[in-house]
Specification:
Layout (H helix, E strand, L loop, with lengths): L9 H13 L51 H9 L6 H4 L7 E2 L5 E5 L4 H6 L6 H11 L14 E5 L13 H18 L3 E5 L1 H8 L5 H4 L4 E5 L2 E8 L2 H6 L4 H17 L1
Parallel strand pairs: 2-3, 2-4, 4-6
Antiparallel strand pairs: 1-3, 5-6
Length: 263
Amino acid sequence: MESNHNDMTPHDAADALRWLSEMGADEIIGEMPVNRLVAPAPKPAPAVARAVPAPAAAPVVVAPGTSAAQFHSLREIELALEGFDACPLKKTATRLCFADGNPAARVMLIGEAPGREEDIEGRPFVGRSGQLLDRMLAAIGLARTAADREGAVFIANTVFWRPPGNRNPTEAETQMCLPFLLRIIELQRPDVIVCLGAVPAHRLTGRTDGILKLRGKWVTATVGGRNIPLLPTLHPAFLLRQPAQKRLAWRDLLSLRQMLDAH
């Protein structure tokens, strides 16, 4: 009988996993294919439930060129994006990744684009980068789950659908989503914006320098007639690849904490 013994040592297995990660293999393929472009089947309601849940709101069909100023709540923008078919990213993504956190928060964090885990769950920063981000925020007394405005954050991205292969969004893709993002900022009215990575910093400030040159320097973003302090910093995904740069991110977090305490 053929033996199933695996003579790979734990050290060899760790080296193999590290090599796969460096080659960009970030997914495990199962034995059966899964069509993630099909919405998951709704979970059955608990047997003890007596109330009939209200039907979900239908997406709003948005024609290209429609002004985002017509939307008067974050929920209206979310429904509009559900019906917005002009952005090609929507055709390859599993679902919309709108926002997360407390809409009343003083701090708004803006990342670059959803990744694989975000594409599956429909929320920004839920994978390894999000877990690191949550720990970083907790170190200065902030959390996306906080109920109070002072300790809460609100999180969004420059684009609302995952780019294929986790590539960076193109300028055309970010410009297509930018009116919606600006309207979200207008309605959310943060006291401070933190840009995670170069893409949101470029779109909101008009600067083109690399993130290592931009980070840690407070600038002003003018959105909806309001001047909002904006701090570019390093994206958590970059910190996972370059752990030595966490010291720079920590300086930025301390600067954010000082800004919040001073105002």
